[in-house]
Design a protein that fits this description.
This protein has 19 helices and seven strands. The chain is α+β, with helices and mostly antiparallel strands. A hairpin with a 2-residue loop joins strand 3 and strand 4.
């Protein structure tokens, strides 16, 4: 499996505390997954992204705590965003603060993509982890959504509530932690991971805003080097994650989204040893595991989300890729087995 880069040590803020609460040896768990324990005190230390995902899943499994990642999010602070936190704090509106996270993703968490979609008065904030071919990432997604929610409340005030907190996975047996953080707005087995809120929330003024400090923060951030060189194939994967569920994964639209023409896109991908069709198929396979394993999601809807206008086309593709029909695959519980084995 191709590594998808590194994340900051701040990703594991509060890990030791939560591990201790559920009876785990934090140092021993970190060592098992090849993570230097110094990341717990050095927020800018570099950690392989997949190691963090595997650590959180193993921690939840071995402790029997289904909400391990969400518990970590409960005590997160805006300062965990590092240098970007000052810019977020002093932006004029929540929309500006959110766009700061999008613009400086490489400095916050290169493995996490945030996309904002506006539909009349409703705003959908989607989060996707760029870890193609990985297995279950329940804990990482819950951590990411919890951190995003706390960022909104830091900017808009503790009385703010989202319209919904959405999770593509099934609900845990005990919803106590989810209700404590989000209230009664959680939606599981959803089409996406993220939040929805009112458009007015994004445009509400930030009482802590200081345009002069925001300008200084942005100048400083622009002076920083990128955390690591990002290959074009990763940008294509990011775009496919976001555009595939809304029917925009044709190569022409992806190329245009990246400011390229089709021929240039193909040539640059070939130089990296990749091709568009292979990347698209890989993203489809990963999302298919998520959607088809979700028994609450009709297969016709799964076909739509994977970019198929006809369910028959989706059915043929699925049978070729997985060796059986989507219905048989779902009934066999193969999705749960794949998650458990991290396939």
């Amino acid at each position: 499996m191709k590594r998808s880069g590194h994340v900051r040590g701040a990703t594991l803020s509060n890990y030791a505390e939560v591990a201790g609460q559920v009876g785990l040896d934090a140092a021993g768990m970190l060592k098992r997954f090849g993570i230097d324990r110094r990341v717990l005190v050095d927020q800018d230390a570099r950690i392989v992204a997949e190691g963090v995902v595997d650590l959180l899943e193993a921690s939840a499994l071995e402790s029997g705590c289904e909400t391990f990642g969400l518990r970590m999010a409960e005590s997160r602070r805006l300062s965990d965003f590092g240098a970007v936190s000052l810019l977020i704090t002093h932006q004029a509106t929540m929309r500006d603060a959110l766009m700061s996270v999008v613009a400086y993703r490489q400095l916050v968490n290169p493995a996490l993509v945030v996309e904002v979609e506006e539909h009349d008065d409703i705003v959908v904030v989607r989060e996707e982890l760029l870890l193609t071919g990985h297995g279950t990432m329940r804990q990482s997604y819950e951590l990411a959504i919890g951190v995003l929610y706390r960022m909104f409340r830091t900017v808009l005030g503790p009385r703010w509530r989202a319209l919904s907190a959405n999770f593509a996975h099934a609900p845990p047996a005990d919803l106590t932690v989810h209700r404590r953080l989000f209230g009664p707005i959680c939606e599981f087995n959803s089409d996406f991971h993220g939040l929805t809120c009112g458009r007015a929330d994004l445009d509400a003024p930030n009482p802590s805003a200081d345009p002069n400090l925001a300008l200084l923060a942005e100048r400083y951030l622009r002076s920083l080097p990128a955390t690591e060189e990002r290959p074009l194939s990763q940008d294509v994967q990011k775009t496919l994650y976001l555009m595939l569920p809304i029917g925009g994964a044709a190569i022409g639209r992806v190329a245009a989204n990246l400011g390229l023409n089709e021929r240039t896109l193909q040539r640059r991908l070939a130089a990296e040893g990749a091709d568009f069709a292979g990347l698209l198929n890989g993203i489809r396979r990963e999302l298919a595991v998520r959607y088809v394993a979700n028994a609450a999601l009709p297969l016709s809807r799964a076909a739509d989300l994977l970019g198929y206008a006809r369910q028959s086309s989706f059915s043929r593709w699925f049978a070729e890729e997985f060796g059986q029909s989507a219905t048989a695959w779902r009934q066999s519980g193969a999705g749960r087995k794949a998650d458990f084995l991290n396939l």
